[in-house]
Specification:
13 helices, 5-stranded parallel β-sheet, alpha+beta, globular
């Protein structure tokens, strides 16, 4: 017999399988030995009151063993003889687009400007040790995209866009922990995600697809408003052409692509973003605040998360991409930039917890100088702020930083606490040089968050500048029904870089939708 139940239990019961079985046997009035297996379907933490509870939805196998896998497996056929489709970018959008193309019987040819996920790791180490940023291989560019080495968080509110569970099941099929199927805020971890990505790539190649690393798209091949492929250049300088309909999945930091699209008169529009800082607290302090306990999380609870949001002077101020027990990382894609992001390993066991603390910026908030394409003005605003941050950091990856309490009071921090940010920090008056529309709203937002959670507004917390790559600064205009560009047939802008997603899961969903639309375009609709 199989029975599904919802229970609300104390952390120490949820933590230990023997305790959990004993609790279930009492709850259901059945013999303890009759419980053969317990599968967790949903799991969340309720820390709203002083007593923390774990909410579980469980499937109980009574006097029988499960006969099915924990996840749903997808079959991928051989597509060596299938019609060819070009996928530009091997981030989550590109990877899931390629896998869905294979399901549709189509042959994906992936063009990736960066290196494979293992080689890419060496270039990330150079940023830490010698402060050298490789323009084509960094925390944003390379196999796996921006998410590969910046956390692997899979939580999304984009439930209406597509089947989020399918995305999670595919990740499990390629090596992710099946806990992501049940956790309220699923997370793979930066230490585990690269091997999952590598397994996905190997599957694509095994089925007859191709993956070309260190190959950068230079232009689209367009004839009579029809996209017939791309031109690209390899790391050796060789120019190549790849022919077929194009899924453009470049990610939100491919600014050279945006400039090319602008010069080619391919319709885009400026899109709002969010800009701010990485805010880093000692993880034990966040545990104490969120779990209402001076002892912190104790033995049975994970590193605590938080989420804050408010409105200040007509714009949203909120926490973004919260990384409990994680690290702040340098995410620039050029030598004269400082950009910060956050990540966590799967254990979330680090000494610090961080999040983006950002302010909503709309296109109308940015003054147009009249010298550039209107669609690029938010991108140019990003670039200007990242360059200023680099100058404040002594023209290195040494990031400008300020204690949180000092920032709110408008004071320079004369010393800084220890931090997870490996390239190093320099004390800087962020309240003075950041745009006033950002800094003043952050100050008011921090005061409000400090009232919501006593102890959150503190000089133990550190602000590190700047967080600018929250989403794409443009949207490439496309038909809502066919997902093709509004004018260019055979061009399918997709994912974060096209302005239609925000995060790994939503980018994956958008990539799958684009692949299905390509299948219809080619006359091989997905069943």
């Amino acid at each position: 017999m199989i029975k599904e139940i919802n229970i609300r239990i104390l952390p120490h019961i949820a933590f230990d399988e023997a305790n959990l079985k004993e609790h279930i046997s009492c709850e259901l009035g059945i013999n303890l030995n009759s419980i053969c297996h317990i599968r967790t379907l949903k799991k969340s933490i309720d820390a709203r009151q002083r007593q923390v509870f774990i909410n579980l939805t469980l499937r109980i196998y009574i006097n029988e063993e499960p006969t099915d896998e924990t996840f749903t497996r997808t079959e991928y056929p051989d597509v060596q003889k299938g019609k060819q489709v070009i996928v530009v970018g091997e981030g989550p959008c590109g990877l899931f687009a390629a896998l869905k193309l294979i399901e549709c019987g189509l042959r994906p040819i992936i063009i990736e400007r960066g290196k494979d996920v293992r080689e890419r790791k060496k270039d990330l180490a150079k940023i830490k040790h010698s402060q050298q940023v490789d323009n084509e291989s960094n925390y944003c560019f390379g196999e796996g995209g921006a998410g590969a080495y910046s956390d692997g968080k899979l939580y999304t509110r984009s439930k209406k866009r597509g089947d989020t569970n399918h995305i999670l099941n595919v990740f499990c099929q390629f090596g992710a922990s099946c806990n992501i199927l049940s956790d309220a805020h699923p997370h793979i971890g930066t230490d585990r995600l690269p091997i999952v990505i590598e397994n996905m790539r190997n599957q694509i190649i095994k089925c007859g697809g191709e993956v070309h690393f260190q190959t950068k798209m230079t232009r689209l091949l367009i004839t009579n408003d029809k996209c017939e492929g791309i031109a690209a250049i390899t790391s050796t300088g060789e120019e190549k052409e790849y022919h077929g309909p194009v899924i453009l999945a470049t990610g939100h930091s491919a600014r050279d692509v945006y400039r090319y699209l602008s010069s080619a008169d391919i319709e885009m529009e400026a899109k709002g973003i969010a800009v701010g800082v990485r805010l880093e607290h000692p993880s034990h302090l966040i545990d104490q605040i969120q779990y209402h306990n001076k002892q912190g999380r104790g033995k049975y609870l994970p590193a605590a998360e938080y989420s804050f949001v408010t409105q200040v002077d007509g714009r949203g101020v909120y926490s973004f991409c919260m990384c409990p027990g994680g690290f702040v990382i340098p995410a620039a894609t050029d030598k004269e930039q400082i950009v910060v992001n956050g990540m966590s390993p799967s254990s979330r066991g680090g000494k610090w917890s961080n999040s983006g603390m950002v302010v909503e910026v709309r296109p109308e908030d940015i003054r147009d100088d009249g010298n550039t394409d209107e669609a690029l003005k938010v991108m140019l605003f990003q670039e200007k702020l990242e360059k200023e941050c680099w100058l404040q950091g002594n023209m290195k990856q040494t990031a400008p930083a300020q204690r949180m309490g000092d920032f709110v009071k408008g004071k320079l921090s004369y010393d800084l606490p220890k931090s997870s940010y490996a390239p190093g920090l320099i004390s800087s008056p962020l309240h003075f040089w950041m745009p006033k529309g950002i800094s003043t709203r952050l100050q008011k937002g921090f005061e409000y968050f400090g009232k919501q959670r006593r102890g959150f507004l503190t000089n133990e917390a550190l602000m590190i500048g700047v967080e600018t790559r929250t989403s794409a600064p443009i949207r490439i205009l496309r038909n809502n029904e066919t997902l093709q560009h509004i004018r260019i047939n055979g061009l399918f802008p997709a994912g974060e870089g096209a302005g239609f997603a925000g995060g790994i899961v939503s980018a994956g969903i958008d990539g799958e939708r684009a692949a299905e639309m390509v299948s219809e375009y080619l006359g091989t609709p997905f069943a």
